[in-house]
Amino acid sequence: MFNNNPIGMLDTGVGGLTVLKEALKQLPNETFYYLGDTERCPYGPRPVKQIKEFTWDMVNYLVDKGVKMIVIACNTATAVALEDIRKELTIPVVGVIYPGARAAIKSTKNNRVGVIGTIGTINSEQYELAINTKSLKTDVFGLACPKFVPVVESMEYHSPIAKKVVHNTLKPLKEKNVDTLVLGCTHYPLLREFIQSEMGEDVILIDSGAETVSDVSMLLDYYNISAEPTNETRTHQFYMTGSKRMFEEILNDWLTVEKYGIHRVSITKGNE
Amino acid sequence: MFNNNPIGMLDTGVGGLTVLKEALKQLPNETFYYLGDTERCPYGPRPVKQIKEFTWDMVNYLVDKGVKMIVIACNTATAVALEDIRKELTIPVVGVIYPGARAAIKSTKNNRVGVIGTIGTINSEQYELAINTKSLKTDVFGLACPKFVPVVESMEYHSPIAKKVVHNTLKPLKEKNVDTLVLGCTHYPLLREFIQSEMGEDVILIDSGAETVSDVSMLLDYYNISAEPTNETRTHQFYMTGSKRMFEEILNDWLTVEKYGIHRVSITKGNE
Description:
The structure is a homodimer of 272-residue chains. Chain A is α/β, with parallel strands linked by helices and 272 residues long. Chain A folds into 2 domains: 7-95 and 210-264, Rossmann fold (3-Layer(aba) Sandwich); 97-208, Rossmann fold (3-Layer(aba) Sandwich). Chain A has 11 helices and 10 strands. The first copy, chain A, has helices spanning 17-26, 48-64, 75-88, 97-107, 119-124, 126-134, 148-153, 160-174, 192-199, 208-222, 244-254; strands at 7-11, 32-36, 69-72, 93-94, 112-117, 139-144, 180-183, 204-207, 235-240, 259-264. In chain A, the strands form 2 sheets. Chain A has a 6-stranded parallel β-sheet, with helices on both faces. In chain A, helix 3 links the parallel strand 3 (69-72) and strand 4. Chain A is globular.
Protein backbone atom coordinates (compact mmCIF):
# COMPACT_ATOMS: atom_id res chain seq x y z
CA MET A 1 0.00 0.00 0.00
CA PHE A 2 3.02 2.34 0.14
CA ASN A 3 4.86 3.74 -2.83
CA ASN A 4 8.34 5.10 -2.18
CA ASN A 5 8.92 6.37 -5.71
CA PRO A 6 9.73 10.07 -5.90
CA ILE A 7 7.27 12.83 -6.76
CA GLY A 8 8.39 14.75 -9.85
CA MET A 9 8.14 18.53 -9.71
CA LEU A 10 8.92 20.74 -12.67
CA ASP A 11 9.27 24.42 -13.40
CA THR A 12 10.85 26.63 -16.02
CA GLY A 13 13.40 27.68 -13.39
CA VAL A 14 13.62 28.28 -9.66
CA GLY A 15 9.99 29.33 -9.14
CA GLY A 16 8.82 25.82 -8.32
CA LEU A 17 11.10 25.90 -5.27
CA THR A 18 8.35 27.92 -3.57
CA VAL A 19 6.10 24.90 -4.06
CA LEU A 20 8.80 22.49 -2.92
CA LYS A 21 9.30 24.46 0.28
CA GLU A 22 5.66 23.94 1.23
CA ALA A 23 5.79 20.30 0.08
CA LEU A 24 8.76 19.47 2.32
CA LYS A 25 6.85 20.91 5.28
CA GLN A 26 3.55 19.11 4.65
CA LEU A 27 4.96 15.85 3.24
CA PRO A 28 8.14 15.05 5.15
CA ASN A 29 8.06 11.36 4.12
CA GLU A 30 8.15 11.99 0.41
CA THR A 31 11.16 12.14 -1.91
CA PHE A 32 11.15 14.89 -4.56
CA TYR A 33 12.86 15.07 -7.94
CA TYR A 34 12.87 18.70 -9.01
CA LEU A 35 13.53 19.71 -12.60
CA GLY A 36 14.13 23.34 -13.62
CA ASP A 37 14.53 24.21 -17.28
CA THR A 38 16.70 27.20 -16.34
CA GLU A 39 18.49 27.20 -19.69
CA ARG A 40 15.28 27.95 -21.61
CA CYS A 41 13.55 30.07 -18.93
CA PRO A 42 11.37 32.13 -19.14
CA TYR A 43 8.58 30.28 -20.95
CA GLY A 44 6.04 33.07 -20.35
CA PRO A 45 6.58 35.09 -23.55
CA ARG A 46 7.03 32.02 -25.84
CA PRO A 47 4.41 30.76 -28.33
CA VAL A 48 1.92 28.21 -27.00
CA LYS A 49 3.21 25.43 -29.25
CA GLN A 50 6.74 25.82 -27.94
CA ILE A 51 5.66 25.98 -24.30
CA LYS A 52 3.81 22.68 -24.82
CA GLU A 53 6.84 21.09 -26.43
CA PHE A 54 9.24 22.24 -23.70
CA THR A 55 6.84 21.13 -20.97
CA TRP A 56 6.61 17.67 -22.53
CA ASP A 57 10.44 17.51 -22.53
CA MET A 58 10.39 18.07 -18.78
CA VAL A 59 7.53 15.64 -18.16
CA ASN A 60 9.19 12.88 -20.18
CA TYR A 61 12.47 13.36 -18.37
CA LEU A 62 10.80 12.89 -14.99
CA VAL A 63 8.60 10.00 -16.11
CA ASP A 64 11.76 8.19 -17.25
CA LYS A 65 13.11 8.62 -13.71
CA GLY A 66 10.15 6.61 -12.39
CA VAL A 67 8.18 9.31 -10.58
CA LYS A 68 4.76 8.36 -9.17
CA MET A 69 3.18 11.77 -9.69
CA ILE A 70 3.92 14.94 -11.67
CA VAL A 71 3.50 18.38 -10.15
CA ILE A 72 3.57 21.13 -12.77
CA ALA A 73 4.88 23.80 -10.41
CA CYS A 74 4.62 26.47 -13.11
CA ASN A 75 1.52 28.46 -14.03
CA THR A 76 2.49 28.99 -17.65
CA ALA A 77 3.03 25.29 -18.28
CA THR A 78 -0.15 24.45 -16.36
CA ALA A 79 -2.21 26.92 -18.37
CA VAL A 80 -0.97 25.59 -21.68
CA ALA A 81 -0.24 21.89 -21.19
CA LEU A 82 -1.94 20.42 -18.09
CA GLU A 83 -4.99 19.00 -19.86
CA ASP A 84 -2.90 17.29 -22.56
CA ILE A 85 -0.45 15.80 -20.09
CA ARG A 86 -3.16 14.58 -17.78
CA LYS A 87 -4.86 12.81 -20.68
CA GLU A 88 -1.68 11.06 -21.82
CA LEU A 89 -0.15 9.89 -18.55
CA THR A 90 -1.39 7.12 -16.30
CA ILE A 91 0.11 8.70 -13.14
CA PRO A 92 -1.65 11.63 -11.44
CA VAL A 93 -0.73 15.09 -12.73
CA VAL A 94 -1.30 18.21 -10.63
CA GLY A 95 -1.21 21.82 -11.82
CA VAL A 96 -1.08 25.11 -9.91
CA ILE A 97 -4.03 27.03 -11.35
CA TYR A 98 -7.13 25.32 -9.94
CA PRO A 99 -5.82 25.22 -6.34
CA GLY A 100 -5.06 28.96 -6.52
CA ALA A 101 -8.47 29.69 -8.02
CA ARG A 102 -10.25 27.73 -5.29
CA ALA A 103 -8.29 29.53 -2.55
CA ALA A 104 -9.19 32.90 -4.12
CA ILE A 105 -12.92 32.10 -4.09
CA LYS A 106 -12.65 31.07 -0.45
CA SER A 107 -10.78 34.26 0.45
CA THR A 108 -12.59 37.06 -1.38
CA LYS A 109 -15.36 38.96 0.37
CA ASN A 110 -16.00 41.71 -2.18
CA ASN A 111 -15.82 39.26 -5.12
CA ARG A 112 -13.01 41.18 -6.78
CA VAL A 113 -9.91 39.08 -7.34
CA GLY A 114 -6.65 40.11 -9.01
CA VAL A 115 -4.38 37.63 -10.77
CA ILE A 116 -0.80 38.39 -11.72
CA GLY A 117 1.24 36.07 -13.91
CA THR A 118 3.33 35.73 -17.03
CA ILE A 119 2.03 36.82 -20.42
CA GLY A 120 1.33 33.17 -21.25
CA THR A 121 -0.70 32.60 -18.11
CA ILE A 122 -2.67 35.85 -18.32
CA ASN A 123 -3.42 35.46 -22.03
CA SER A 124 -4.67 31.91 -21.46
CA GLU A 125 -7.39 33.31 -19.13
CA GLN A 126 -7.27 30.01 -17.23
CA TYR A 127 -7.69 31.70 -13.84
CA GLU A 128 -10.82 33.53 -14.97
CA LEU A 129 -12.18 30.25 -16.28
CA ALA A 130 -11.29 28.30 -13.14
CA ILE A 131 -12.78 30.96 -10.84
CA ASN A 132 -15.93 31.62 -12.87
CA THR A 133 -16.60 27.90 -13.25
CA LYS A 134 -17.06 27.81 -9.48
CA SER A 135 -18.41 31.30 -8.90
CA LEU A 136 -19.96 33.46 -11.62
CA LYS A 137 -20.28 36.47 -9.35
CA THR A 138 -16.54 36.90 -8.84
CA ASP A 139 -14.84 39.50 -11.06
CA VAL A 140 -11.29 38.61 -12.06
CA PHE A 141 -8.67 41.21 -13.05
CA GLY A 142 -5.61 39.76 -14.75
CA LEU A 143 -2.29 41.56 -15.16
CA ALA A 144 0.79 40.24 -16.93
CA CYS A 145 4.06 41.02 -15.14
CA PRO A 146 6.73 39.95 -17.66
CA LYS A 147 9.60 41.54 -15.73
CA PHE A 148 9.10 39.60 -12.49
CA VAL A 149 10.56 36.22 -13.56
CA PRO A 150 13.81 37.65 -14.96
CA VAL A 151 14.28 39.66 -11.75
CA VAL A 152 13.96 36.49 -9.68
CA GLU A 153 16.04 34.24 -11.93
CA SER A 154 18.87 36.80 -11.89
CA MET A 155 18.94 36.74 -8.08
CA GLU A 156 17.77 40.35 -7.82
CA TYR A 157 14.64 39.60 -5.77
CA HIS A 158 15.85 41.28 -2.57
CA SER A 159 17.12 44.39 -4.37
CA PRO A 160 15.80 47.97 -4.86
CA ILE A 161 15.47 47.11 -8.57
CA ALA A 162 12.92 44.45 -7.68
CA LYS A 163 11.01 46.94 -5.54
CA LYS A 164 10.88 49.46 -8.38
CA VAL A 165 9.79 46.87 -10.94
CA VAL A 166 6.99 45.70 -8.62
CA HIS A 167 5.88 49.28 -7.97
CA ASN A 168 5.74 50.23 -11.67
CA THR A 169 4.12 47.00 -12.80
CA LEU A 170 1.29 46.77 -10.27
CA LYS A 171 0.02 50.35 -10.74
CA PRO A 172 -2.94 49.47 -13.04
CA LEU A 173 -4.14 46.81 -10.58
CA LYS A 174 -4.25 49.10 -7.57
CA GLU A 175 -7.32 51.00 -8.76
CA LYS A 176 -9.33 47.77 -9.22
CA ASN A 177 -10.14 47.51 -5.50
CA VAL A 178 -9.41 43.77 -5.27
CA ASP A 179 -9.35 42.24 -1.78
CA THR A 180 -7.49 39.10 -2.92
CA LEU A 181 -4.53 38.77 -5.25
CA VAL A 182 -3.42 35.45 -6.71
CA LEU A 183 0.34 35.12 -7.19
CA GLY A 184 -0.25 33.27 -10.44
CA CYS A 185 3.39 32.39 -11.00
CA THR A 186 5.49 30.26 -8.67
CA HIS A 187 8.37 32.75 -8.89
CA TYR A 188 6.34 35.54 -7.32
CA PRO A 189 6.39 34.44 -3.66
CA LEU A 190 10.07 35.41 -3.74
CA LEU A 191 8.83 38.99 -4.34
CA ARG A 192 6.04 38.65 -1.79
CA GLU A 193 7.12 41.42 0.57
CA PHE A 194 7.35 44.02 -2.19
CA ILE A 195 4.03 42.92 -3.67
CA GLN A 196 2.27 43.01 -0.30
CA SER A 197 3.55 46.48 0.54
CA GLU A 198 2.61 47.76 -2.92
CA MET A 199 -0.95 46.35 -2.78
CA GLY A 200 -1.51 47.27 0.88
CA GLU A 201 -1.63 45.07 3.98
CA ASP A 202 -5.36 44.36 3.66
CA VAL A 203 -5.08 42.53 0.36
CA ILE A 204 -4.81 38.78 0.84
CA LEU A 205 -2.09 37.21 -1.29
CA ILE A 206 -2.78 33.67 -2.50
CA ASP A 207 0.31 31.57 -3.12
CA SER A 208 -0.99 29.22 -5.81
CA GLY A 209 1.98 26.90 -5.34
CA ALA A 210 1.46 26.43 -1.63
CA GLU A 211 -2.22 25.68 -2.26
CA THR A 212 -1.16 23.05 -4.76
CA VAL A 213 0.56 21.00 -2.08
CA SER A 214 -2.83 20.31 -0.50
CA ASP A 215 -3.89 18.75 -3.80
CA VAL A 216 -0.72 16.66 -3.92
CA SER A 217 -1.32 15.45 -0.38
CA MET A 218 -4.93 14.67 -1.20
CA LEU A 219 -4.05 12.66 -4.32
CA LEU A 220 -1.44 10.64 -2.42
CA ASP A 221 -4.29 9.53 -0.17
CA TYR A 222 -6.82 9.18 -2.96
CA TYR A 223 -4.59 6.84 -4.99
CA ASN A 224 -3.08 5.26 -1.89
CA ILE A 225 0.48 6.00 -3.01
CA SER A 226 2.01 7.75 0.01
CA ALA A 227 5.61 6.88 0.86
CA GLU A 228 6.28 4.64 3.83
CA PRO A 229 6.59 6.65 7.06
CA THR A 230 10.18 7.03 8.18
CA ASN A 231 12.22 8.95 10.71
CA GLU A 232 15.10 9.18 8.27
CA THR A 233 15.65 12.21 6.07
CA ARG A 234 14.92 11.60 2.40
CA THR A 235 17.48 12.49 -0.25
CA HIS A 236 16.02 14.82 -2.88
CA GLN A 237 17.39 15.33 -6.38
CA PHE A 238 17.65 18.56 -8.36
CA TYR A 239 18.05 18.58 -12.11
CA MET A 240 18.53 21.72 -14.14
CA THR A 241 19.37 22.53 -17.71
CA GLY A 242 21.32 25.71 -16.91
CA SER A 243 23.98 26.76 -14.40
CA LYS A 244 24.23 24.61 -11.27
CA ARG A 245 25.88 27.34 -9.20
CA MET A 246 23.13 29.93 -9.71
CA PHE A 247 20.45 27.37 -8.96
CA GLU A 248 22.16 26.20 -5.78
CA GLU A 249 22.56 29.76 -4.53
CA ILE A 250 18.82 30.44 -4.79
CA LEU A 251 18.05 26.99 -3.40
CA ASN A 252 20.04 27.62 -0.26
CA ASP A 253 18.80 31.17 0.12
CA TRP A 254 15.17 30.09 -0.11
CA LEU A 255 14.88 26.76 1.67
CA THR A 256 16.69 24.17 3.76
CA VAL A 257 17.18 20.78 2.19
CA GLU A 258 19.30 18.50 4.34
CA LYS A 259 20.29 15.83 1.85
CA TYR A 260 20.30 16.34 -1.87
CA GLY A 261 22.00 15.72 -5.19
CA ILE A 262 22.29 18.37 -7.89
CA HIS A 263 22.80 17.67 -11.58
CA ARG A 264 23.07 19.66 -14.78
CA VAL A 265 21.24 17.74 -17.50
CA SER A 266 19.98 17.95 -21.04
CA ILE A 267 16.28 17.14 -21.40
CA THR A 268 15.80 17.25 -25.15
CA LYS A 269 15.50 13.85 -26.78
CA GLY A 270 18.67 11.90 -27.48
CA ASN A 271 20.89 14.46 -25.79
CA GLU A 272 21.44 13.08 -22.31
CA MET B 1 -16.87 19.88 -20.19
CA PHE B 2 -19.58 20.52 -17.61
CA ASN B 3 -21.54 17.87 -15.76
CA ASN B 4 -24.79 18.95 -14.17
CA ASN B 5 -25.56 15.63 -12.50
CA PRO B 6 -26.01 15.85 -8.74
CA ILE B 7 -23.38 15.01 -6.14
CA GLY B 8 -24.58 12.24 -3.82
CA MET B 9 -23.95 12.69 -0.12
CA LEU B 10 -24.76 10.02 2.44
CA ASP B 11 -24.81 9.68 6.19
CA THR B 12 -26.41 7.44 8.78
CA GLY B 13 -28.59 10.39 9.77
CA VAL B 14 -28.42 14.16 10.03
CA GLY B 15 -24.66 14.42 10.69
CA GLY B 16 -23.77 14.80 7.04
CA LEU B 17 -25.76 18.04 7.00
CA THR B 18 -22.70 19.66 8.59
CA VAL B 19 -20.79 18.68 5.45
CA LEU B 20 -23.61 19.83 3.18
CA LYS B 21 -23.65 23.25 4.86
CA GLU B 22 -20.00 23.78 3.92
CA ALA B 23 -20.57 22.32 0.44
CA LEU B 24 -23.41 24.75 -0.33
CA LYS B 25 -21.11 27.62 0.62
CA GLN B 26 -18.07 26.52 -1.40
CA LEU B 27 -19.92 24.96 -4.35
CA PRO B 28 -22.99 27.11 -5.06
CA ASN B 29 -23.33 25.75 -8.62
CA GLU B 30 -23.71 22.13 -7.62
CA THR B 31 -26.87 20.13 -6.97
CA PHE B 32 -26.82 17.76 -3.99
CA TYR B 33 -28.80 14.60 -3.30
CA TYR B 34 -28.55 13.86 0.40
CA LEU B 35 -29.43 10.47 1.82
CA GLY B 36 -29.75 9.83 5.56
CA ASP B 37 -30.40 6.32 6.83
CA THR B 38 -32.17 7.75 9.87
CA GLU B 39 -34.23 4.60 10.36
CA ARG B 40 -31.17 2.44 11.04
CA CYS B 41 -29.01 5.13 12.71
CA PRO B 42 -26.65 4.89 14.60
CA TYR B 43 -24.23 2.66 12.68
CA GLY B 44 -21.37 3.26 15.15
CA PRO B 45 -22.02 0.32 17.51
CA ARG B 46 -22.96 -2.19 14.75
CA PRO B 47 -20.70 -5.03 13.52
CA VAL B 48 -18.38 -4.19 10.64
CA LYS B 49 -20.12 -6.55 8.22
CA GLN B 50 -23.47 -4.87 8.80
CA ILE B 51 -22.06 -1.34 8.49
CA LYS B 52 -20.60 -2.33 5.11
CA GLU B 53 -23.91 -3.79 3.95
CA PHE B 54 -25.92 -0.75 5.05
CA THR B 55 -23.41 1.64 3.46
CA TRP B 56 -23.67 -0.24 0.17
CA ASP B 57 -27.48 0.10 0.36
CA MET B 58 -27.02 3.87 0.53
CA VAL B 59 -24.39 4.00 -2.20
CA ASN B 60 -26.47 1.90 -4.59
CA TYR B 61 -29.52 4.05 -3.99
CA LEU B 62 -27.61 7.21 -4.94
CA VAL B 63 -25.83 5.63 -7.89
CA ASP B 64 -29.25 4.62 -9.29
CA LYS B 65 -30.21 8.30 -9.09
CA GLY B 66 -27.35 9.14 -11.48
CA VAL B 67 -24.96 11.00 -9.16
CA LYS B 68 -21.55 11.98 -10.56
CA MET B 69 -19.71 11.62 -7.27
CA ILE B 70 -20.30 10.01 -3.86
CA VAL B 71 -19.40 11.79 -0.63
CA ILE B 72 -19.44 9.46 2.35
CA ALA B 73 -20.25 12.16 4.88
CA CYS B 74 -19.98 9.72 7.77
CA ASN B 75 -16.80 8.68 9.55
CA THR B 76 -18.03 5.23 10.54
CA ALA B 77 -18.98 4.31 6.97
CA THR B 78 -15.74 5.83 5.65
CA ALA B 79 -13.64 3.85 8.11
CA VAL B 80 -15.30 0.57 7.24
CA ALA B 81 -16.34 0.78 3.59
CA LEU B 82 -14.52 3.58 1.68
CA GLU B 83 -11.81 1.40 0.16
CA ASP B 84 -14.28 -1.23 -1.07
CA ILE B 85 -16.64 1.31 -2.57
CA ARG B 86 -13.85 3.24 -4.28
CA LYS B 87 -12.63 0.02 -5.89
CA GLU B 88 -16.06 -0.95 -7.21
CA LEU B 89 -17.39 2.35 -8.54
CA THR B 90 -16.22 4.21 -11.62
CA ILE B 91 -17.26 7.63 -10.25
CA PRO B 92 -15.07 9.41 -7.66
CA VAL B 93 -15.77 8.54 -4.02
CA VAL B 94 -14.69 10.84 -1.20
CA GLY B 95 -14.55 9.99 2.50
CA VAL B 96 -14.19 12.19 5.58
CA ILE B 97 -11.19 10.66 7.37
CA TYR B 98 -8.16 11.61 5.26
CA PRO B 99 -9.15 15.28 4.92
CA GLY B 100 -9.56 15.51 8.70
CA ALA B 101 -6.22 13.77 9.27
CA ARG B 102 -4.41 16.14 6.90
CA ALA B 103 -5.92 19.20 8.57
CA ALA B 104 -4.85 17.87 11.99
CA ILE B 105 -1.22 17.48 10.86
CA LYS B 106 -1.27 21.01 9.50
CA SER B 107 -2.74 22.37 12.74
CA THR B 108 -0.83 20.65 15.54
CA LYS B 109 2.25 22.30 17.00
CA ASN B 110 2.93 19.94 19.91
CA ASN B 111 2.26 16.82 17.81
CA ARG B 112 -0.49 15.64 20.14
CA VAL B 113 -3.81 15.17 18.40
CA GLY B 114 -7.08 13.91 19.86
CA VAL B 115 -9.73 12.17 17.79
CA ILE B 116 -13.30 11.65 18.95
CA GLY B 117 -15.73 9.46 17.05
CA THR B 118 -18.12 6.55 17.23
CA ILE B 119 -17.03 3.15 18.52
CA GLY B 120 -16.75 1.92 14.94
CA THR B 121 -14.52 4.80 13.86
CA ILE B 122 -12.26 4.70 16.91
CA ASN B 123 -11.89 0.90 16.83
CA SER B 124 -10.95 1.02 13.16
CA GLU B 125 -7.91 3.19 14.08
CA GLN B 126 -8.20 4.78 10.63
CA TYR B 127 -7.33 8.26 11.90
CA GLU B 128 -4.12 7.01 13.56
CA LEU B 129 -3.22 5.27 10.31
CA ALA B 130 -4.01 8.30 8.15
CA ILE B 131 -2.09 10.69 10.42
CA ASN B 132 0.93 8.45 10.99
CA THR B 133 1.21 7.66 7.29
CA LYS B 134 1.98 11.33 6.79
CA SER B 135 3.70 12.11 10.07
CA LEU B 136 5.22 9.45 12.34
CA LYS B 137 6.03 11.95 15.08
CA THR B 138 2.41 12.85 15.78
CA ASP B 139 0.78 11.05 18.72
CA VAL B 140 -2.90 10.32 18.28
CA PHE B 141 -5.31 9.82 21.16
CA GLY B 142 -8.65 8.31 20.19
CA LEU B 143 -11.79 8.38 22.31
CA ALA B 144 -15.14 6.81 21.46
CA CYS B 145 -18.15 8.99 22.35
CA PRO B 146 -21.11 6.64 21.78
CA LYS B 147 -23.63 8.98 23.43
CA PHE B 148 -23.05 11.96 21.12
CA VAL B 149 -24.92 10.74 18.02
CA PRO B 150 -28.14 9.78 19.87
CA VAL B 151 -28.12 13.20 21.59
CA VAL B 152 -27.94 14.93 18.20
CA GLU B 153 -30.42 12.70 16.38
CA SER B 154 -32.96 13.25 19.17
CA MET B 155 -32.72 17.04 18.71
CA GLU B 156 -31.16 17.49 22.18
CA TYR B 157 -27.96 19.15 20.96
CA HIS B 158 -28.72 22.61 22.40
CA SER B 159 -29.82 21.21 25.78
CA PRO B 160 -28.19 20.93 29.24
CA ILE B 161 -28.29 17.15 28.74
CA ALA B 162 -25.91 17.53 25.79
CA LYS B 163 -23.61 19.70 27.86
CA LYS B 164 -23.48 17.12 30.63
CA VAL B 165 -22.88 14.23 28.22
CA VAL B 166 -20.02 16.14 26.60
CA HIS B 167 -18.52 17.00 29.98
CA ASN B 168 -18.60 13.42 31.25
CA THR B 169 -17.41 11.83 28.03
CA LEU B 170 -14.41 14.04 27.30
CA LYS B 171 -12.85 13.77 30.78
CA PRO B 172 -10.21 11.13 29.86
CA LEU B 173 -9.05 13.22 26.88
CA LYS B 174 -8.47 16.41 28.85
CA GLU B 175 -5.34 15.10 30.57
CA LYS B 176 -3.68 14.17 27.23
CA ASN B 177 -2.59 17.75 26.52
CA VAL B 178 -3.65 17.70 22.87
CA ASP B 179 -3.56 21.03 21.00
CA THR B 180 -5.81 19.79 18.19
CA LEU B 181 -8.99 17.73 18.36
CA VAL B 182 -10.55 16.08 15.32
CA LEU B 183 -14.33 15.96 15.37
CA GLY B 184 -14.23 12.52 13.81
CA CYS B 185 -17.97 12.23 13.32
CA THR B 186 -20.05 14.52 11.16
CA HIS B 187 -22.68 14.81 13.90
CA TYR B 188 -20.24 16.46 16.33
CA PRO B 189 -20.09 19.99 14.87
CA LEU B 190 -23.66 20.33 16.18
CA LEU B 191 -22.13 19.95 19.67
CA ARG B 192 -19.17 22.18 18.83
CA GLU B 193 -19.76 24.87 21.45
CA PHE B 194 -19.98 22.41 24.32
CA ILE B 195 -16.91 20.51 23.06
CA GLN B 196 -14.87 23.70 22.67
CA SER B 197 -15.73 24.98 26.12
CA GLU B 198 -14.98 21.58 27.66
CA MET B 199 -11.57 21.22 25.95
CA GLY B 200 -10.60 24.88 26.44
CA GLU B 201 -10.44 27.73 23.95
CA ASP B 202 -6.82 26.99 22.94
CA VAL B 203 -7.58 23.59 21.49
CA ILE B 204 -8.19 23.75 17.74
CA LEU B 205 -11.21 21.75 16.63
CA ILE B 206 -11.00 20.16 13.18
CA ASP B 207 -14.31 19.65 11.43
CA SER B 208 -13.51 16.65 9.25
CA GLY B 209 -16.64 17.18 7.19
CA ALA B 210 -15.84 20.78 6.30
CA GLU B 211 -12.32 19.73 5.29
CA THR B 212 -13.85 17.10 3.02
CA VAL B 213 -15.53 19.74 0.89
CA SER B 214 -12.09 20.92 -0.25
CA ASP B 215 -11.49 17.42 -1.57
CA VAL B 216 -14.84 17.41 -3.35
CA SER B 217 -14.05 20.75 -4.95
CA MET B 218 -10.61 19.51 -5.97
CA LEU B 219 -11.96 16.33 -7.58
CA LEU B 220 -14.58 18.29 -9.53
CA ASP B 221 -11.66 20.15 -11.11
CA TYR B 222 -9.45 17.09 -11.41
CA TYR B 223 -12.06 15.09 -13.33
CA ASN B 224 -13.44 18.17 -15.07
CA ILE B 225 -17.01 17.46 -13.89
CA SER B 226 -18.08 20.76 -12.33
CA ALA B 227 -21.64 21.87 -12.96
CA GLU B 228 -22.27 24.68 -15.41
CA PRO B 229 -22.10 28.10 -13.74
CA THR B 230 -25.54 29.58 -13.12
CA ASN B 231 -27.14 32.46 -11.30
CA GLU B 232 -30.18 30.31 -10.56
CA THR B 233 -30.64 28.48 -7.30
CA ARG B 234 -30.29 24.71 -7.60
CA THR B 235 -32.99 22.42 -6.21
CA HIS B 236 -31.53 19.90 -3.79
CA GLN B 237 -33.13 16.60 -2.79
CA PHE B 238 -33.24 14.98 0.61
CA TYR B 239 -33.99 11.29 1.05
CA MET B 240 -34.35 9.62 4.41
CA THR B 241 -35.40 6.21 5.65
CA GLY B 242 -36.96 7.50 8.89
CA SER B 243 -39.26 10.34 9.92
CA LYS B 244 -39.45 13.28 7.51
CA ARG B 245 -40.62 15.70 10.15
CA MET B 246 -37.69 15.18 12.52
CA PHE B 247 -35.22 15.45 9.67
CA GLU B 248 -36.74 18.64 8.35
CA GLU B 249 -36.69 20.24 11.79
CA ILE B 250 -32.95 19.70 12.16
CA LEU B 251 -32.39 20.69 8.53
CA ASN B 252 -34.04 24.05 9.02
CA ASP B 253 -32.42 24.63 12.37
CA TRP B 254 -28.93 23.96 11.01
CA LEU B 255 -28.81 25.39 7.51
CA THR B 256 -30.69 27.41 4.91
CA VAL B 257 -31.66 25.57 1.74
CA GLU B 258 -33.80 27.70 -0.54
CA LYS B 259 -35.26 25.09 -2.87
CA TYR B 260 -35.51 21.44 -1.98
CA GLY B 261 -37.55 18.26 -2.10
CA ILE B 262 -37.82 15.88 0.82
CA HIS B 263 -38.75 12.19 0.52
CA ARG B 264 -39.10 9.23 2.84
CA VAL B 265 -37.72 6.18 1.04
CA SER B 266 -36.75 2.56 1.49
CA ILE B 267 -33.20 1.81 0.38
CA THR B 268 -33.07 -1.96 0.80
CA LYS B 269 -33.28 -3.87 -2.44
CA GLY B 270 -36.67 -4.42 -4.06
CA ASN B 271 -38.47 -2.31 -1.50
CA GLU B 272 -38.82 1.06 -3.12
